[in-house]
Amino acid sequence: MTEAREDIDEVTALLDRAGGHAPPLHVSREDVVRRGSTIRRGRRVAAAVSTLAVAGVLWFGWAVAPLGEDPVTAPAEVTWSDLDLDGRLLGLSGRGSSTWSAELRTVEGQEQPELVVSRDGEVLPEPLQAQDGPGEVQVFRTDGLTVAVWLHTEDDPGGPVAWGGRCSLCVGGASDVDGTRIGYAATAAVGSADPAELYVMTEGAVTTLDGRGVPSLELAVEERRFLVFLDEQAGLWGVRGPDDGDQVEVMPVHGDAGTIRGGERSAPWLVSLIPPVAEAVLGEGSVEGASTELAGHQVLIGVGDQTEAPEVDVVIDGERRSLDSYVDSQAREVGVGEPPVTWRSTVEGFLWLDQGSKTEALSVREELSDGRAVVVPVAGGTLVVVGGWAPAPEEAAVFVGDGGGGRWEAATSVRVRELADGRPVTFLGLPVLSASEQEQVVDVGVADEDPSDPEPLGLEEIQVVPLGD
Known about the structure:
Layout: E1 38-40, E2 57-60, E3 63-64, E4 86-93, E5 100-105, E6 114-119, E7 122-123, E8 128-129, E9 131-132, E10 138-142, E11 145-151, E12 161-162, E13 170-177, E14 180-188, E15 199-202, E16 205-208, E17 213-214, E18 216-221, E19 224-231, E20 236-240, E21 248-252, E22 258-262, E23 269-274, E24 279-282, E25 288-294, E26 297-303, E27 312-316, E28 319-322, H1 323-332, E29 342-345, E30 350-355, E31 358-363, E32 372-378, E33 381-387, E34 396-402, E35 405-410, E36 413-418, E37 424-430, H2 435-439, E38 441-446, E39 455-456, E40 461-464
């Protein structure tokens, strides 16, 4: 165990001036949510994965246009072969990651640029060749690094690429080179994780760099149009606000829910992803709203004024609470304990558990490596933490017993999350167990067919680790 403790901030990486517009979505009168109106949802969807992330150190090459200034744009007919490029584009580094730098250059006779990449001070043997991405985006890839570049035009002064939510190590912006503005975005791997997903907004659609389509829509509130997309596969969703200066913000989905805010003080807005099991209430007063569905999820938008910012409450199992607090609890809590036990993962290789004044750091490499688990007795219950395992939440169970027999115990709560190194981690909640029963937790399993006879995972080692003072 370690006594060290470090604060970790979840980083939301934003790209300035993201572009792209989806076709208008016509919302019926019934979809408009007025003051105090409610929306009832009743379908259950499995909780999405969440994570905590740590920022890296970022550099920018060439001349980066400051936010708020008019961008330098290239004429629409300019192509890569018209440019003479040979300079540093970006660099990024962070704890638990390699140190990267990249130079973008054009080669006479080639229509696309190439990227000269250095990793930990060593130049890769061959320059990376550009691959065609969605729209006009050019993509460069090597093990542990993904870079996207594109030319800004007079018709598109913003950038079509955005990332966020889980992006532990990302950098992006726009560089002015000989009167031409080049946009770029890069993401690097941390630990064993893959580089974060990058999203391209072009031609009225949202796709990944690999061309995978992501469900999206436009929704209007009093002529203010919002672009919203939801990537259930990655557990992320994003919003582009109605103003030219609004950035694209991408966040993790926590417990089938999320909130993204923006706008000026005179017209603040809130876009909410409502849990399917919840009844949502848009705040009263001067707030106007609209509602629709996206990929089976409820999307609710509220726009306020200088006297009132929009707020959304949800009613779940008869209890009313703010959506913000629900999302926060789903992101930070493991689902067991009174008061609730919270968690955070660090790139230094520790998973921290906290309950009131008690805390403990579990070694991801040792105690939570594949085939190992930890039993943590807490106030109000028992927590079982399993690294490298991601079961369907409704099918997970814990075996309690000894050589003479035992029983499968259905978990009272199951939350599957992601460690800073990209591996899954599962938190299983159980009732309070006696000291002898804690020692008899010997395996976990999945009851995908017969609830009374789960398939064991086959854990090699389980330790009992109490929270420390």
